[in-house]
Design a protein that fits this description.
The chain has helices at residues 3-36, 41-79, 84-102, 104-121, 124-130, 135-175, 287-299, 306-333, 342-368, 373-394, and strands at 183-192, 195-203, 208-218, 221-234, 240-252, 255-267. It is of the alpha+beta class and 397 residues long.
């Protein structure tokens, strides 16, 4: 081989390497653009279909629910003299968001199943896959829509709807049926380290408790004991109480010091909301207030906290449910089947109702049994995540 031929071969090798490097850079740039590319027409098309069907299904189903609710309660509302303005703005304006958020997983699943089955029935899914769009890429607009719904569900359920629930519950308490407890008996709670309070009977209407006692212990030994015939809560101040006809005993070894009096103003780390619990009280608390309440009552040894814990964890788990049910819905309904979308819609409704039923059953087991609250709430998500993974790998690619 001559020197000239060797030079030609080297020059060709350099050109080939240069072309390879250029193609590699182009490939990396294309992958980067694919990963972070803006929304395409197919994305906006699917997102608009998803969110449009979701909103339409909410409006349709809740309109029917409101009509049935009005039909069953209007007589009692009128008998109790409920004004029309209060019925609309205090009750139904808060009724609709509460139930829309509560059944959001059902609406997500129905929406995905309905419009994806229609896309598959019209051979649009086949055309997308044949055009070079992978099934993984097809899931992108679905998950973007699910992220919007998930964020809205969490914000509404955690911070906005609880404030509206206060108005709705107050309205029901006044014009439909009483839900608040006015009288509680045999209240015992820990109000601090080594301090235990007891009230034989408390009437919330007058903010008065009868036969009150407060004990303080030092290394399990009683060192201070207060008894009072009655105790009144001052709602204008924080944790401010007035004790009446009281006696205080201070124990110092074998010696004992006794004080008594008619009226004494004092600060005790408790308020009526700690023991006057109304039905579904957890639904009126924001996430921040709910977490503080759970921590505070746990330190006091309050036993009946399962419903509050379940509600706190449920709000977080419900936001992830949108992604899980979306994946199941797309994987299930993206295949074109004989007979149209009826079969897919039937299977979708069955799975969505089974998911809601699973949530209710696991929560009941937690409240009445020994199942941890966080496991009871997340167990449906774990089970249906496995179903979503299996269906995803079986979906048409």
């Amino acid at each position: 081989m001559t020197d000239r031929e060797k030079k030609i071969i080297k020059a060709r090798a350099k050109r080939i390497n240069k072309i390879r490097k250029s193609r590699h850079k182009q490939s990396k740039s294309r992958n980067y653009r694919l990963r972070f590319m803006p929304l395409k027409r197919i994305d906006t098309y699917i997102i608009s279909k998803f969110l449009g069907t979701y909103i339409f299904s909410i409006v349709l189903i809740l309109s029917i629910a409101v009509i049935f609710d009005i039909n069953s309660k209007i007589d009692k509302f009128l008998d109790h003299g409920a004004p029309v303005k209060a019925i609309i703005f205090d009750y139904y304006l808060n009724f609709v968001p509460y139930f829309a958020n509560l059944f959001s997983p059902l609406f997500v699943f129905i929406s995905v199943i309905f419009f994806t089955s229609k896309l598959a029935d019209d051979s649009e899914i086949i055309a997308m896959l044949a055009g070079g769009i992978s099934f993984k890429r097809l899931m992108r607009p679905y998950f973007l829509s699910a992220a919007v719904i998930s964020f809205a569900t969490f914000e509404l359920g955690s911070y906005i709807i609880p404030k509206g629930n206060i108005k709705m519950i107050n309205f029901e308490d006044k014009y439909w049926k009483k839900r608040k407890e006015d009288v509680v008996s045999n209240v015992q709670l820990q109000i601090g380290k080594g301090s235990v309070a007891y009230i034989e009977r408390y009437e919330d209407a007058s903010k008065t408790g009868y036969h009150f006692s407060l004990d303080k212990f030092d290394k399990k030994k009683l060192v201070w004991h207060l008894t009072a015939q009655s105790i009144n809560y001052d709602s204008t101040k924080v944790n401010h109480w007035k004790i009446n006809d009281y006696m205080i005993r201070e124990m110092h070894g074998l010696k004992e010091k006794i004080k008594s009096g008619t009226v004494k103003d004092t600060v005790i780390d408790m308020d009526p909301s700690d023991f006057v619990i109304m039905q579904n009280m957890q639904n009126t608390m924001t996430n921040t207030a709910l977490k503080k309440y759970i921590d505070k009552q746990s330190k006091r040894g309050f036993a009946n906290l399962k419903e509050f814990q379940i509600e706190y964890y449920r709000r977080i788990a419900a936001s992830f449910a949108a992604f899980i049910l979306t994946a199941i819905g797309v994987s299930l309904s993206s295949r074109k089947v004989k007979g149209g979308m009826g079969l897919n819609l039937g299977i979708g409704l069955g799975l969505s109702f089974s998911y809601i039923l699973f949530q209710s059953v696991s929560s009941t087991f937690s409240i009445n049994g020994s199942m941890p609250s966080i496991l009871a709430v997340w167990l449906p998500n774990i089970v249906y995540s496995i179903i979503a993974i299996v269906l995803y790998f079986k979906a048409p690619k």
